[in-house]
Design goal:
Layout (H helix, E strand, L loop, with lengths): L4 E6 L4 H10 L5 E7 L9 H4 L10 H4 L14 E4 L3 H13 L3 E4 L15 H4 L5 H9 L5 E4 L9 H11 L1 E10 L11 H4 L10 H12 L2 E2 L4 E2 L4 E8 L6 E9 L5 H9 L14 E4 L7 H4 L2 H4 L2 E8 L5 E7 L3 H17 L4
Parallel strand pairs: 1-2, 1-3, 3-4, 4-5, 6-9, 11-12
Antiparallel strand pairs: 6-10, 7-8, 10-13, 12-13
Helix pairs in contact: 1-13
The protein binds NADP nicotinamide-adenine-dinucleotide phosphate.
Length: about 350
């Protein structure tokens, strides 16, 4: 049997932390050996510290793990981090410095020049940046990799396909984001029921900048960001899981609708354990994608694209959907860890 890596989860009791526990329950490469959270939880068995909110039962194996503080050393070979950004930066750097690979969901390091911001299918070669990171920060065995903001996952993959074939010039995106994206307990019921909130703190700048880094090219020293502009408006909507993006895109080179569909459908996939098949699914039903009906495609890892048409002002328009706590968070990080193993980096 191949080696199982021992995994610690920082922020284990939270919305994303619980997804990690769920996704790793029967994972052939990883076993959870450490769970860390805030002072509120430290010293308690996980089953007492965590208010479990997923539809599947809490895995038996994690129930009696005693929650520890978010500081090294932890009894594990690598850490997944789902900490709030205000504590993530210092903590993740401390773990990397102590020799742990850190696979983070948090925004703290995403835009640092020496930190890979990964969607494995799109930019796995950005892992070469880790050599630069280790030298710059004086890390020995440890390092930090990140996955993108959850809303980016609903539209960066089709953009990557279009950028490769035709060049993307500009993007206008409106996101409709689920309440689970705000963590637990998240948005107050009286604010979100019967309502749409036109503001998510800190979200629009992330949605306007991360895709250019993800679609950028590594030149041996740094990532040269893709040169398109993104204009974003982000809304919180009364959906539990699943972020939707309404996208209009202007391309550098002309293309037919058939070519655009082919570019998305034929975009290369990977063959990692958590890779979905397909990576991106185009639906032609006029009323799809919908969060409730489409977020679980590919066990929550497939991006669904619908309403793909020529646009009157831009070149094309489409609606993208992804599961924010799976493809946009814990599932993305697990895929990153599988990629790191495949590349021999952990
Ligand atoms: N939710 C999503 O869809 C999503 C998607 C992508 C990325 N993210 C990012 O993932 C991170 C976690 O999000 P979430 O939705 O899981 O949040 P959450 O439900 O609020 O969970 C936060 C977790 O962090 C712990 N924590 C909070 N403050 C802490 C502190 N001062 N010291 C140590 N631990 C602390 C909490 O522990 P206690 O239970 O002990 O308080 C809990 O385990 C955030 O950076 C978020 O931006 C979230």
């Amino acid at each position: 049997m191949s080696k199982k890596y021992r995994v610690g989860i920082l922020g284990a009791t939270g919305t994303v932390g619980q997804r990690f526990c769920q996704l790793l329950e029967n994972h052939p490469q990883f076993e959870i050996t450490a769970l860390a959270a805030s002072d509120r939880s430290v010293g308690k068995p996980f089953v007492e510290a965590c208010s479990w909110k997923l539809a599947t039962p809490m895995p038996e194996k994690v129930k009696n793990i005693i929650v520890t503080p978010i500081a090294p050393p932890l009894d594990c070979d690598l850490v997944f981090s789902s900490l709030p950004s205000n504590v993530a930066r210092e903590t993740e750097e401390a773990f990397a410095r102590a020799g742990y690979p850190v696979i983070s969901n948090s925004s703290s390091f995403r835009m640092d020049e020496d930190v890979p911001l990964l969607i494995p299918e799109i930019n796995h070669d950005h892992l070469d940046l880790l050599e630069v990171q280790k030298k710059k920060r004086g890390f020995d065995k440890g390092f930090i990799v990140t996955n993108p903001n959850c809303a980016i996952m609903s539209f960066a993959p089709p953009l990557a396909a279009l950028n490769d074939k035709f060049g993307v010039e500009s993007v206008f995106v409106t996101t409709f984001q689920a309440v689970s994206g705000a963590g637990y307990p998240g948005v107050p019921t009286l604010d979100i029921m019967d309502n749409v909130l036109p503001y998510i703190a800190g979200e629009e700048p992330k949605v306007e900048t991360e895709a250019q880094k993800i679609l950028g090219k590594f030149n041996g020293e740094q990532i040269e960001k893709a040169d398109f502009l993104v204009s974003a408006q982000c809304f919180r909507v009364p959906v539990i899981d699943g972020h939707t993006a309404s996208v209009r895109v202007k391309l550098k080179n002309t293309s037919t609708l058939e070519e655009v569909r082919e570019a998305i459908s034929n975009y290369p996939n990977l063959n990692l354990l958590s890779s979905p098949s397909p990576f991106m699914a185009i639906t032609d039903e006029p009323d799809r994608p919908q969060p409730r009906l489409d977020r679980d495609r590919g066990k929550g890892m497939t991006i669904t694209i619908g309403r793909l048409f020529p646009d009157n002002i831009f070149d094309y328009r489409f609606v993208g959907l992804s599961h924010n706590t799976v493809r946009g968070a814990a599932g993305a990080a697990v895929l990153n860890a599988e990629l790191l193993i495949e590349k021999g980096l952990i």
